Amino acid sequence: MGILALAGVGVRLQLVVFILLSFVLVAASRRFAERFTKAQPPGIGADRFVGEICDVLDEINNPKNTGRVRMNREEWRAESDTGEVLAPGTRVVVMRLSGTHLVVKKIPE
Fold first, then answer.
1. How far is Cα 61 from Cα 65, in angstroms, rounded to an integer?
2. Residues 6+ apart with CB under 8 A from 43
3. How far apart are CA 73 and CA 97, in angstroms?
4. pLDDT exceeds 60 at position 77
5. Residues 6+ apart with CB under 8 A from 21
6. Which of 19, 48, 52, 53 is at a distance of 20 to 30 A from 90, taking alpha carbons?
7. What is the pLDDT of residue 43?
8. What pLDDT is stored for residue 106 in this prediction?
9. pLDDT in tens, 6-39
10. DSSP calls for 40-97
11. Cα–chain-centroid distance for residue 62?
């Protein structure tokens, strides 16, 4: 039982008060949550891979959906940022992460 029902207020007015109060509380809780929710600092999560240097292990060929690189001690599936085919042994830099693939670009020699 609600407070308004105990006061004898009709069902329609109870519904209107419920909807208005819900909007007010959602707006207030968003402001409260934004104060305590901080943006993720750079270098945390997947962003930490951007700028890392990798060695191509298997040929990176976007149309064939092939390519693997080694970054530190980890092996990742990779695709080329420019679409060019990259041979094994090529040094590349990570531009971004796309799902479970690293998007890499050849380092100019």
1. 6
2. none
3. 17
4. yes
5. none
6. 48
7. 63
8. 92
9. 788 888 988 999 999 999 999 888 888 877 776 6
10. PPTTSGGGGGTT-EEEEEEEEETTTTEEEEEETTEEEEEEESS---B-TT-EEEEEEE
11. 22
